[in-house]
């Protein structure tokens, strides 16, 4: 529809109901925060000397709990080959993934600490 009518204003519908702007922003902010943490975590793990495939898959595995990773953290191996700093970063990412990212980021806001 947007291709045929580029100047039209369309609302997003889910199951026939219009999704409001606040919900759209909330979903988009979650996705951006998740990707930001994934990229930062992968960069930190790769900076410790791990290959990029192992770094990215170990971060994804720890953040989402999706099962075995690829590379040296694959199904026939474990995380013992990673450096200690990498294990600490992956542990923090695992906690963040379990607590939900928005909750963890809310702790660092000023309004959270005002009573």
List keywords for this structure.
mainly alpha, 115 residues, single chain
Description of the structure:
- The protein is built from 5 helices and 2 strands.
- The protein has 115 residues and is mainly alpha-helical.
- β1 and β2 (17-18) form a beta hairpin.
- α1 runs antiparallel to α3.
User: Helical element count?
Assistant: 5
What is the alpha-carbon Rg in Å?
A: 19 Å
The description of the largest β-sheet is: 2 strands, antiparallel
Which strand-content bin applies to the residues? under 5%
Work out the helicity level. 55-70%
Mean pLDDT comes to 88
Unreliable stretches (pLDDT < 50, length at least 5) are none
Structural class: mainly alpha
Tally of domains: 1
Q: What distance separates the N and C termini?
A: 48 Å
Shape: extended
The strand order across the widest sheet is 1-2
Give, in order, the helices and strands.
Answer: EEHHHHH
- Strand element count: 2
Draw up the topology in text.
Elements: E1 13-14, E2 17-18, H1 21-47, H2 52-64, H3 84-99, H4 101-107, H5 110-113
Antiparallel strand pairs: 1-2
Task: Provide a concise account of the structure shown.
Helices cover 58% and strands 3% of the residues. It contains five helices and two strands, in the order E-E-H-H-H-H-H.
């Amino acid at each position: 529809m947007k291709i045929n009518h580029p100047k039209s204003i369309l609302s997003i519908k889910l199951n026939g109901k219009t999704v409001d702007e606040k919900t759209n922003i909330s979903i988009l902010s979650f996705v951006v925060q998740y990707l930001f943490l994934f990229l930062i975590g992968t960069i930190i793990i790769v900076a410790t000397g791990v290959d990029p495939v192992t770094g990215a898959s170990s971060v994804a595995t720890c953040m989402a709990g999706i099962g075995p990773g690829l590379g040296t953290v694959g199904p026939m191996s474990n995380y013992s080959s990673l450096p200690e700093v990498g294990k600490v970063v992956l542990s923090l990412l695992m906690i963040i993934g379990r607590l939900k990212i928005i909750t963890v980021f809310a702790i660092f806001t000023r309004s959270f600490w005002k009573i």
